[in-house]
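S., here's the first fold you wanted:
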Amino acid sequence: MSDAVPLVDPPGHRYRLLTGPDDATFCTRISEALEEGYTLYGSPAVTFDGQRVIAAQAVVWPHPPATTPAPTSPHTQNGDDR
């Protein structure tokens, strides 16, 4: 059994902030993100908008990316395309 962490690209962004009314649909969205492989980040937050409770929960992709961005040449950072 290997202890190596798999290199896997997330199904979306590495960091997501899920928000919405604090209801069953919101809970389902969080559960789906966890099933995709995201992990909870920090505590949930709630506020009241005058009519309903709005919840927010951050999730992060815990795995290193399978792909890495191409390195930027120092010659092209300032518009010099030599």
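And the second, which I think is the more interesting of the pair:
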Amino acid sequence: MKRTFSISLFILVVFALLVSACGTEATPTAEPTQAVVEPTEAPTEVPAEAPAPTEAPVAEPVTIRALIRPDEGGNVAKYAAQFEQETGNKVAVDFVGWAEIHDKTVTTLASGGGGYDIDFIPSANVVEFASGGWFEPIDDVIPADQRDQWLQTVLDLYTYEGSLIANPWYSGGAHMAYNKDILTTAGVDPASIKTWDDFMNACKTIKETGAAEFCFSPSAKYPGEFYYNVGSIVAAMGGEFFDADGNPVFQDDGMTLKAFQLMKDGIDNGYFDPAGVALDDYETLIEFGTGKTAFLLDSTWSVTNANRNPDVSQILDKVGYILIPGEGSQTSGGYLYAGGLGILKTSENKEVAKQFLQYLTQEEAQKQHAIDGANMPTRVALFKDADIATAWAGFETLADQLNYGKFPPQFTWFEEWRRSLATATQEVMTATKTPEEAVQWLVDETNRLKAQ
């Protein structure tokens, strides 16, 4: 009986609720106005949420891979870590030594990119690497209205067939440094050294006074010593190696012969260290840093570190700088270099890679690279930066040297030609060939390489 009552009561309650609901819907009030608004607002909310699924992949962190030369000053490591912290995207870098990076890069490119997103492009190999069609045009990384903020010569260097293929990272070149104490002991005024004849006279005085074991040690071990040996000496004398088509012309102006003769005379007279034939530019820096030699013809990084880095030099704050000696009306000269970072067409993360290139080449990063890594910037404003000038003793002279420099010729066979020049230089230094024989052999080598 109690159960029947409960069920009956339940039915009555439900019935009452239904009647109440029906009565509410039928009552004419202001509610219909709201009812009209609700259906029209609901659809507008759907499109607002619709883009959400497409945004998710953009926010998904990725890892980009890079193949780069040694990390001078910890520049890449520092800004890769900051980039990861700010964006969530990681940067995995394989650093390869200077002696191996060219061949490693060629092998990597030829095999389809090796899974790398970013690849280092040295200034000497722009055409060689770009001609393979491996690199993505990145004109949008440096828009046209911002290009006046960058060194135009470096932008031009990394522009191939009308497109920018690498973001300029740093610049530099060959420089001449000297040991202040040695020149003072020998009574040589560095300001008097304007030509290579002046240089050789200074070397004669240094030898006669016993102020140093050697005046100079030419580095001739690798093809890259082109910058710090015969290559920049010929350029400083006003000589040229090729015409616009890559034909040899160095046998005509006499400057390559004079540079080879200078090497021979320096060795024969005891001015130059004959061990330089097997030394690279880092090893001649170490030799200079011990006080064994009076002069150093080397990179921006080397001549700067000779003055301030106790790991490579014992003559801290005793290094001065002069322009590389010239010849006749030619005040100075030498070869420049630069480093650029390109994005491979095979990269699956091109946009993130572009973001990292911009991050690594921003003013703050280039300033750190200059102060801690001893590399000249590629942003124009930084050449007047007070902090860089303070950190680099002699920065004004080092920066001025770049005004007299030029980039190496851009032929696909230039790397192999540099090997031939290195061989010719070594054979002159070891008296295997006379300077005249070395010039003729190099002419024949040039024609052979060009004809391949």
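Why I say that: The first helix runs from residue 2 to 26. The first strand starts at residue 63 and ends at 68.

Talk tomorrow,
H.
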